[in-house]
UniProtKB/TrEMBL annotation:
Its cofactor is [4Fe-4S] cluster; Mo-bis(molybdopterin guanine dinucleotide). This is FdhF/YdeP family oxidoreductase. Residues 113-516 form the Molybdopterin oxidoreductase domain. The keyword Iron-sulfur applies. Coiled coil: none annotated. Keywords: 4Fe-4S, Iron, Iron-sulfur, Metal-binding, Molybdenum, Oxidoreductase. The keyword Iron-sulfur applies. It comes from Mesorhizobium abyssinicae. Residues 678-784 form the Molybdopterin dinucleotide-binding domain. InterPro entries: Asp_de-COase-like_dom_sf, MopB_CT_YdeP, MoPterin_dinucl-bd_dom, Mopterin_OxRdtase, Mopterin_OxRdtse_a_bac, Prok_molybdopt-oxidoreductase, YdeP_MopB. Belongs to the prokaryotic molybdopterin-containing oxidoreductase family.
């Protein structure tokens, strides 16, 4: 369905992803950040061995990089970090925080890089410069006065392996396992589900799988915006004839058509690659039903083959399911293996898995009508996807936030694994699970111990190596930290990056709690709202970015990161630091650690002087994963983390890969009177990196000049009595006696399934109740919230 829109802010974008639109957008931001010469020069070293690893997304860095291994959004992130703009003491001298509180985040970050350590001065309500030593001393004193249970040490996914290892070590030596991180809002559903299903905490796919695959299920990830370099791998696959089956709430441009900005031929001829061969627009939250439909088609086709006497003996009950279903037999025969005997990989299922029968029975029991209603897809569509899947020998499963940020996020991921297991699509070339990670080192932080779960950190080893007794209690996840901030249990928050207040749910209640903190310490590169609101004692500590030269006692230092495909890479910053007063993240962590802990066995200064020593400690802590870390860190293409599931060794309780049957198709929540309720999914524009808003343009979705919009289905607009372009207020429709409203969003008619709507994150975060999260992974359900709309008396703001 295509919809016409009269709205001035929204014109359907007719171009492909990439292409000249992308090139123009990169040029514009390089000029805006006033880095015209240094920008392009630096970009040519991005994601290359001996260069720096992009600070944007976590996508793989190939061993043979493209001539310029960067994308539009990586270029924007680079320009954003090396900007020549400065938020210096002069800026802060003129601005009390009560004034900065009224600024939008875009304007706060647009001030440029922080240059000096700052302390909030109560008398003037301003951030004023402070000496590093003084800052560390007071932070240490305050932390010593608190019970470690009252302190939360948050990490956003950008900090290097070196900084992350030091940070978790400091937290534990101090006595706290409260190590919430951005992953708790992001891929936590994967971190919980994948170990249960296949005994791996991360995806199992590597780059060569894209070269060997026949078919890719591409689920709930917006490649054109969130990880554009992955489009190269998809494009190469498509050119080899690989089928890409997409399941997404929206028709995302990057999943439809792509012009490779790196290809002169494509750029000059405008020749586009069609990415998805099948595009299924599911309801938000409809993926369990959709994937069950695909599994049901496969399982019943397999049953039909058996029943037709063509294949193996019948199922366990000895009775074939539907012996007279000629249509199903024909369908099955059309996609069966060469010997026409089976659709499922029974040898794999028998040898490698547990729980198949229960899962297969659940699939048979689900009624097509119910699967159709919940998923929003037709039976034919689900059968078509099944047929393509069954005809492919090696199939990959790629997915993102549209699956994980749900009340049933863990079960969404189980379902992806179930589908893969039916035909042995894990642990063979061209197959595997690819969880597309967000931040550039979010996966790696977990690998080196950032976790609130004591069972996931090598506590005994840390104790033995560093001579201390680590706390054994379970710390707080991000949602639990929010709770503790709201109810006063948390007294101090230390943020290693991020814009916590804007990224989490329940903004209003959080801001109130945040102001009651005794201590807030933010280690950051740019100013954001989580700094402007603050505790009784507040520090803003500016750090080097990854692109900058990190000069220490033994010379320039390198750091390392882990990509989405579990490969480790060294990264060398070369740009001149934004200010001579900046310290690196390892140096800041060491400063706080020394001031808080006094004498310890850890040689903090020697580590800061030479990061190779930190890597040695990481290697001693995780000898298998980080074997010869320093020697291998600049290996082209990175070095791989051992993943037993890739070798079909299943480190699960059953010793097998587990089919895990979701308890229901769709989550339950308490909403009264559903007729006027829509299901909201929050989205990223093409002009933002999380809460960092580069600009007010979402080129691929045709939105310009504002982010205060709500995407709606045309029929819903009419049914609910609204008009295209009308301004509405949006209210949360969860019955918990708290009123949550975001005012002044403009209706944009959009190709989105009926009953669903979309709006931008973080503008709509005030709508999300903290309790509206997956109970297993505690991941907020940012992709499904019941809301109601009402006519607004506001005029829209930009
Ligand atoms: N440019 C840019 N790049 C980024 C980021 C950024 O903000 N900007 N953020 C980084 C981070 S931290 C992360 S985690 C990743 C996020 O990258 P993604 O995983 O792509 O996450 P989102 O952009 O939030 O949206 C995911 C997609 O899910 C779809 N969707 C929503 N709900 C559903 C559903 O229920 N089912 C299905 N099938 N689809 C659904 C949406 O239409 C959208 O296309 O990107 C990283 N890279
Ligand atoms: N409604 C809704 N909410 C969401 C999401 C959603 O899809 N919908 N997505 C969630 C997800 S997936 C994520 S990951 C979170 C992330 O949300 P954010 O907290 O926004 O993540 P960041 O991009 O890390 O935070 C940006 C800030 O990090 C600081 N920074 C940048 N570079 C560095 C550096 O090198 N070092 C340090 N110390 N600081 C730096 C800058 O000061 C910048 O202001 O938001 C979550 N919130
Ligand atoms: Mo993320």
């Amino acid at each position: 369905m295509t919809l016409k829109t009269s709205s001035a802010i929204s014109k359907p974008y007719s171009g492909p992803a990439g292409g000249w639109g992308s090139a123009k957008s990169v040029a514009a931001i390089i000029l805006r950040e006033r880095v015209p010469l240094k920008g392009p020069r630096l970009l040519s070293t991005q994601n290359r061995p001996e260069g720096y690893m992009c600070v944007s997304c976590a996508w793989a860095k190939p061993s043979q990089p493209h001539p310029l291994e960067f994308c539009e959004n990586g270029a924007k992130a680079t320009a954003w970090e090396i900007t020549s703009r400065r938020a210096d003491p002069e800026f802060f001298a003129g601005k009390p925080l009560s004034e900065l509180e009224l600024w939008p985040d875009h304007d706060l970050e647009e001030q440029g890089r922080l240059t000096q350590p700052l302390r909030w001065d109560a008398a003037s309500d301003k951030y004023v410069p402070v000496a590093w030593s003084e800052a560390f001393e007071e932070i240490g004193r305050e932390l010593r006065a608190l019970d470690p249970h009252q302190v939360d040490l948050y990490t956003s996914g950008r900090a290097s392996l070196e900084a992350s290892y030091m940070y978790q070590l400091f937290a534990r030596m101090y006595g706290s396992n409260n190590l919430p991180d951005s992953s708790n809002m992001c891929h936590e559903s994967s971190s919980v589900a994948l170990p249960e299903s296949i005994g791996a905490s991360v995806g199992t796919a590597i780059l060569s799988d894209f070269e060997n695959t026949d078919c890719i299920f591409y689920i709930a990830q917006n490649v054109g915006t969130s990880s554009p370099r992955l489009l190269h791998d998809l494009q190469d696959a498509v050119n080899r004839g690989v089928k890409i089956i997409t399941f997404n709430l929206l028709r995302e441009r990057g999943l439809e058509r792509f012009v490779n900005p790196q290809s002169p031929v494509q750029m000059l001829t405008g020749k586009e690659t069609q990415i998805s061969s099948e595009y299924y627009q599911v309801n938000n939250g409809g993926d369990i039903a959709a994937l069950f439909g695909v599994c049901k088609a496969l399982i019943e086709a397999d049953d039909a083959l058996k029943a037709s006497g063509n294949g193996r003996v019948a199922g366990e009950d000895g009775k074939p399911k539907d012996p007279n279903n000629a249509a199903m037999v024909a369908f099955a025969a059309s996609m069966a293996s060469a010997d026409k005997k089976h659709v499922l990989d029974h040898d794999f299922i028998k040898q490698h898995t547990a729980g198949f029968e229960e899962f297969a029975q659940a699939a048979r029991d689900h009624k097509w009508s119910e699967l159709e209603r919940v998923s929003g897809l037709s039976r034919d569509q689900m059968m078509q996807a099944a047929a393509t899947y069954a005809k492919s020998d090696a199939v990959m499963m790629v997915y993102g936030m549209g699956l994980t940020q749900h009340l049933m996020g863990v079960q969404n991921v189980h379902m992806v694994c179930n589908l893969a297991l039916l035909r042995g699509n894990i642990g063979k070339p061209g197959a595997n699970i690819c969880a597309v990670r967000g931040h550039s080192n979010v996966q790696g932080q977990r690998t080196v111990g950032i976790t609130e779960k004591p069972g996931l950190a090598p506590l005994d080893k840390l104790s033995e190596l560093h001579g201390f007794e680590p706390p054994r209690w379970t710390g707080r996840t991000t949602v639990e930290t929010c709770e503790a901030i709201m109810n006063g249990q948390s007294r101090a928050f230390i943020g290693l990056g991020g814009n916590f207040l804007k990224a989490v749910p329940d903004t209003a209640a959080m801001e109130e709690g945040w102001r009651e903190l005794r201590l807030s310490v933010q280690i950051a590169t740019k100013l954001n709202r989580s700094h402007v609101l603050h505790g009784e004692i507040a520090y803003l500590l500016p750090c080097l970015g990854r692109i900058e030269l990190d000069q220490q006692a033994t010379g320039p230092q390198a750091v390392s990161i882990e990509s989405s495909i579990a490969h480790f890479h060294g990264s060398r910053g070369k740009a001149r630091p934004a200010s001579t007063a900046l310290l690196s993240e390892p140096a800041i962590i060491a400063g706080i650690a020394k001031a808080t802990l006094g004498e310890t066995k850890v040689p903090w200064d020697a580590w800061v002087g030479n990061y190779a020593e930190i890597r040695n400690a990481i290697e001693r802590t995780y000898p298998e994963t980080f074997k010869d870390f320093n020697e291998r860190m600049f290996k082209p293409g990175g070095f791989a983390r051992p993943l037993p599931a890739r070798e079909r060794k299943w480190v699960t309780k059953s010793g097998k890969a587990n089919f895990i049957t979701p308890a229901k198709l769709f989550p339950e929540f308490s909403t009264s009177g559903r007729a006027d309720v829509l299901h909201l999914a929050t989205l990223r524009s093409n002009d933002q990196f999380n809460t960092t808003i580069y600009g007010y343009s979402d080129r691929f979705r045709g939105v310009e000049g504002t982010r205060r919009i709500i995407f709606m289905n045309g029929e819903d607009i009419l049914r609910l009595g609204f008009a295209d372009g009308e301004i509405v207020d949006v209210t949360t429709a969860i019955d918990d006696n708290v009123a949550r409203t975001v005012t002044g969003l403009k209706i944009v008619p959009y190709n989105i399934p009926k009953g669903c709507c979309g709006a931008y994150y973080p503008e709509t975060n005030p709508l999300f109740p903290l309790a509206h999260h997956d109970p297993k992974s505690k991941t907020p359900s940012y992709k499904l919230l019941p809301v109601r709309l009402s006519r607004s008396h506001l005029t829209p703001v930009g």
